[in-house]
C-alpha cells in the first residue's frame, strides 16, 4: 500500500521495539526520513544496524530537557519536521488503587502522558513551518472505557485524548492536524505481561483471562502493530489531510475492558 509519504520528515518516540519499531519501519518503507529514540540502548543499537539511515538515540522520554535536546538535534538532522508520532508508553502496575505506590503512578503518567506534552512542545514550532503537518498520539481502548486495576494507565490514556482534542483546536489555524489512536488488545510482550499479571492476581489461568478479554470484542483476534502503523501512516498521508481532533479506535470493536 502506497501512502504517498516519500520525503516526509518524521519523528517517532520509543521506536526501538514493538509498535514503535513497526511504525519506524513502515515510514522508512514509504520513503520517509525518520528519527527515533528509545530508553533501551540495545534496541537503539539493533535499530541502527537494521536501518542505518534512521537517526536513533537513547532518550528518557520522561525527562523534558532530554526530550527537548533530542528534538532539536533531530529537527536539525531532518531539516524540519512534518510528522510527530507520540508512541512512548509503559503498562504501569496491575493493582487495586489503594495498593498502587505513588512512584509507580507518577512514572506511568510521566511516560504515557507527560512525554507527549514534552515532544509536542518541542516540535510544534517546526511543525508550523511544514505546511502539511500532523501529530498522532497513542492512546488506548483504556482511554475510552477505563480499566479496573490499571488506573494509572487508563488515567494517562484518557489524558492523551484530552491533549489531542485540545491541540487539534489550538493548532487548526496552523494546518497541523492532531489525532489519537486507541489500540485494543495488541499482540506482543506487553499484552502478554498484562494478562499474565491479571491471571496471577485473580488466581486464573492465562487462557481464561485471555478468553474473558476477547468476550468484550466483536472481532476475536489481536490487533497487530502493523494495523496501528497503517492507520498512523494514513493519517500522515495526503488522504488524511482533513482528519483532525479524532480518537480513532483500532480495537476490533472493544465494548469494555475488565
Task: Outline the secondary-structure elements.
Elements (H helix, E strand, L loop, with lengths): L8 E4 L5 H12 L3 E6 L2 H10 L4 E4 L5 H15 L4 E4 L15 H27 L4 E6 L3 H4 L5 H21 L4 E8 L5 H14 L3 H9 L10 H12 L10 E4 L8
Parallel strand pairs: 1-2, 1-4, 2-3, 4-5, 5-6, 6-7
Mean residue pLDDT:
95
Through-space gap between termini: 35 Å
Helical proportion, percent range: 40-55%
Low-confidence stretches: none
- Assign the structural class, choosing from mainly alpha, mainly beta, alpha/beta, alpha+beta, or little secondary structure: alpha/beta
How many individual domains? 1
* Discrete helix count: 9
Spatial strand sequence of the major β-sheet: 3-2-1-4-5-6-7
Determine and state the CATH class.
Answer: Alpha Beta
Strand content: 5-15%
If classified by CATH, what would the architecture be?
3-Layer(aba) Sandwich
> What is the H level of CATH, i.e. the homologous superfamily?
NAD(P)-binding Rossmann-like Domain
Labels describing this entry:
7 strands; alpha/beta; Rossmann fold; 14% strand; 9 helices; seven-stranded parallel β-sheet
How would you summarize what this structure contains?
It contains 9 helices and 7 strands; from the N terminus they run E-H-E-H-E-H-E-H-E-H-H-E-H-H-H-E.
Tell me what you see in this structure.
There is one protein chain. The chain contains 9 helices and 7 strands. It has 258 residues and is an alpha/beta fold. The protein has a 7-stranded parallel beta sheet with strand order 3-2-1-4-5-6-7, sandwiched between helices. It starts with 8 loop residues before the first strand and ends in an 8-residue tail after the last strand. The mean pLDDT is 95.
Amino acid at each position: 500500500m502506497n501512502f504517498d509519504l516519500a520525503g516526509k520528515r518524521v519523528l517517532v518516540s520509543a521506536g526501538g521495539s514493538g509498535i514503535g519499531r513497526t511504525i519506524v519501519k513502515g515510514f522508512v518503507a514509504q520513503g520517509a526520513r525518520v528519527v527515533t529514540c528509545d530508553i533501551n540502548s540495545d534496541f537503539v543499537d539493533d535499530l541502527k544496524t537494521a536501518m542505518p539511515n534512521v537517526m536513533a538515540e537513547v532518550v528518557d522520554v520522561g525527562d523534558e530537557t532530554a526530550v527537548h535536546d533530542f528534538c532539536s538535534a533531530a529537527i536539525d538532522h531532518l531539516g524540519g519536521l512534518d510528522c510527530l508520532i507520540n508512541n512512548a508508553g509503559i503498562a504501569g502496575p496491575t493493582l487495586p488503587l489503594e495498593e498502587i505506590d505513588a512512584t509507580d503512578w507518577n512514572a506511568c503518567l510521566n511516560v504515557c502522558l507527560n512525554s507527549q506534552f514534552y515532544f509536542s512542545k518541542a516540535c510544534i514550532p517546526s511543525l508550523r513551518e511544514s505546511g502539511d503537518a500532523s501529530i498522532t498520539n497513542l492512546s488506548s481502548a483504556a482511554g475510552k472505557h477505563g480499566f479496573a486495576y490499571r488506573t494509572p494507565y487508563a488515567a494517562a490514556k484518557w489524558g492523551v485524548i484530552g491533549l489531542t482534542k485540545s491541540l487539534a483546536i489550538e493548532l487548526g489555524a496552523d494546518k497541523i492536524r492532531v489525532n489519537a489512536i486507541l489500540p485494543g488488545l495488541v499482540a506482543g510482550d506487553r499484552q502478554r505481561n498484562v494478562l499474565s499479571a491479571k491471571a496471577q492476581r485473580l488466581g486464573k489461568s492465562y487462557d481464561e483471562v485471555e478468553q474473558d478479554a476477547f468476550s468484550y470484542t466483536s472481532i476475536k483476534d489481536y490487533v497487530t502493530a502493523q494495523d496501528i502503523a497503517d492507520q498512523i501512516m494514513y493519517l500522515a498521508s495526503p488522504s488524511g489531510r482533513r482528519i483532525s481532533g479524532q480518537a480513532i479506535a483500532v480495537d476490533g470493536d472493544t465494548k469494555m475492558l475488565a
